């Protein structure tokens, strides 16, 4: 299967992650002038040979491929979260090229593409399979499997970059953030949200060395078993104690979301937490201006001068 | 290159095995994290302790007015409270359990009507009819619920 028909604005956006050369779309692969070729499998350009350290995300997003997508739930939850964590609205992205760094199953790309953006969604995990299936009928969405630390995107080609709840799952939140900035056009905006170093995020940080070693399927079955029991009566004393030492997701978005989000919270290989001032300093170090810390803790935006 | 779809569920027997195995593994993890002071020990110890001693039941005494409808009374330090995320105390007024435990303190002060909260070393509470519990002739008892 070859890539789907794409909006012309997205044709020239990809580049060789090693040399920066422009890539030509050919049957079954993207080809660089130097001879390097990147396969297109199941309609998705692949710039990595595997999902490396993010197997848990491959599992969860192919299991819950639509749980958080507004288009399928009929809610506006992801749209509200996108606005709160980036400060962006439809007018900021319509007709513009937006990079969704860490697309997952595509909850935010779903919103951005409906707002009229041309979206490039990148993910290291096989979540790209779910995302591509969700957006197969949207020519304004290009999904690729790649490492966001070595992006297959031309420098200074993107108007807006978002990365919500992703960078803290990479080996270095700061380094991976700084790898995004060169892809931004002059005057372009970048908005990220990372885990704050407080509350349940700080508690979960202690658990990650344990929980990330569990086989994803076994841990997922445990989440499916325990989360409904927790929320059957949250006032019970053992539940209160358990939630104190092992915080479960409680987003008020239904049981399926809480099962997914509990699995998501404990299964990644990396789980870093940060302060808002620390994140704002990365923005300053990267030469960004108009740096704003939003009302949501550790949601920060900036503009490339 | 393959993608783990997650679409193939486990058999019931394997699922039970997975749940038991993960539960045991996480119990070991919790013990390690508590013993190494990375997780708060107090709520867990308090819950465990409630099974190792007689259930705590006591008549509320030394009641003092706090603010509005709210009155306070002392509770021993070794009973885990809502500030530990784990109070198991239930308040009875003349043998009838008051239903609104774990209430915000402002709601106890302004609304009263039997709301109560066990926070730190104190019981914050109000009478069911917002009368003065020191003078309404009713008996107030605290009973510890284990689970």
What does this molecule look like?
- The complex is a heterodimer of chains A (305) and B (147).
- Chain A is 37% helix and 19% strand.
- Chain A is built from 12 helices and 11 strands.
- In chain A, strands 7-6-5-8-9-11-10 form a 7-stranded mixed β-sheet, with helices on both faces. In chain A, strands 1-2-3-4 form a 4-stranded antiparallel β-sheet.
- In chain B, 30% of the residues are buried.
- Chain B starts with 11 loop residues before the first helix and ends with a strand.
- The model of chain B is unreliable at 1-5 (pLDDT under 50).
- Chain B is of the alpha+beta class.
- Helix content of chain B is 28%, strand content 22%.
- Chain B is built from 3 helices and 8 strands.
- The chains are: A alpha/beta (305), B alpha+beta (147).
- The A-B interface holds A 41, 46, 49-50, 55, 58-60, 62-63, 126, 129, 203, 206-207, 210-211, 214, 216-222, 225, 235-238, 240-241, 243-246 and B 1, 3-7, 10, 15, 18-19, 21-23, 25-26, 29-30, 32-34, 38-40, 43-44, 46-47, 84-88, 102, 145-147.
Estimate percent helicity of chain A: 25-40%
Largest protein interface? A-B, 36 and 36 residues
Derived from helix and strand composition plus strand pairing, the structural class of chain A reads alpha/beta
Radius of gyration of chain B, in Å, reads 21 Å
Q: Main beta sheet of chain B, described?
A: 4 strands, antiparallel
For this structure, the quaternary state is: heterodimer
Number of helices of chain A: 12
Distance between the termini of chain B: 48 Å
Low-confidence stretches of chain B: 1-5
The chain-level mean pLDDT of chain A equals 94
Helix and strand run of chain B: HHEEEEEHEEE
Element-level helix/strand string of chain A:
EEEEHHHHEHEHEEHEHHHHHEE
Walk across the major sheet of chain B and give the strand order. 1-8-4-5
Number of helices of chain B: 3
């Amino acid at each position: 299967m070859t890539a789907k028909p794409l909006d012309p604005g997205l044709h020239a956006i990809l580049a060789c992650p090693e040399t920066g050369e422009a890539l030509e779309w050919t049957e079954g692969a993207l080809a660089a002038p130097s001879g390097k070729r990147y396969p297109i499998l199941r309609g998705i350009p692949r710039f990595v040979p595997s999902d490396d350290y993010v197997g848990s995300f491959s599992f969860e997003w192919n299991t819950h491929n639509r749980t958080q997508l507004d288009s399928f739930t009929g809610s506006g939850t992801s749209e509200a979260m996108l606005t709160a964590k980036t400060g962006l609205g439809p007018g900021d992205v319509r007709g513009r090229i937006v990079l969704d760094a860490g697309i997952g199953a595509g909850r935010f790309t779903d919103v951005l593409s409906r707002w009229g953006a041309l979206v490039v969604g990148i993910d290291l995990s096989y979540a790209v399979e779910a995302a591509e299936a969700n957006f197969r009928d949207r020519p304004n969405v290009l999904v690729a499997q790649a490492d966001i630390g070595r992006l297959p995107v031309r420098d200074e080609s993107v108007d807006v970059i978002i990365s919500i709840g992703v960078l803290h799952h990479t080996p270095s939140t700061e380094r991976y953030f700084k790898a995004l900035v060169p892809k931004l056009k002059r005057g372009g905006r970048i908005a990220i949200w990372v885990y704050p170093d407080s509350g349940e995020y700080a508690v979960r940080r202690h658990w990650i060395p344990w929980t990330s070693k569990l086989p994803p399927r076994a841990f997922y079955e445990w989440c499916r078993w325990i989360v409904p029991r927790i929320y059957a009566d949250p006032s019970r004393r053992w539940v209160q104690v358990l939630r104190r030492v092992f915080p479960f997701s409680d987003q008020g978005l239904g049981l399926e979301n809480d099962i997914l989000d509990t699995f998501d919270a404990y299964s990644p290989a990396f789980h870093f937490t940060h302060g808002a001032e620390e994140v704002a300093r990365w923005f300053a170090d990267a030469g960004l201006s108009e740096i704003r810390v939003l009302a949501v803790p550790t949601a920060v935006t900036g503009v490339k001068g | 290159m393959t993608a783990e779809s997650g679409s193939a569920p486990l058999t019931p027997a394997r699922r039970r095995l997975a749940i038991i195995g993960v539960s045991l593994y996480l119990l070991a993890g919790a013990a390690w994290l508590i013993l190494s002071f990375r997780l708060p020990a107090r709520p867990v110890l308090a819950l465990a302790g409630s099974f190792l001693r007689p259930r705590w039941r006591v008549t509320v005494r030394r009641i003092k007015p706090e603010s509005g409808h709210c009155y306070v009374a002392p509770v021993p330090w070794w009973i885990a409270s809502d500030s530990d995320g784990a109070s198991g105390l239930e308040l009875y007024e003349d043998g009838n359990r008051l239903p609104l435990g774990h209430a915000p303190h402002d709601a106890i002060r302004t609304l009263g009507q039997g709301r109560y909260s066990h926070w730190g070393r104190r019981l914050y509470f109000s009478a069911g009819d917002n009368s003065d519990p020191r003078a309404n002739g009713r008996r107030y008892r605290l009973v510890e619920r284990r689970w």
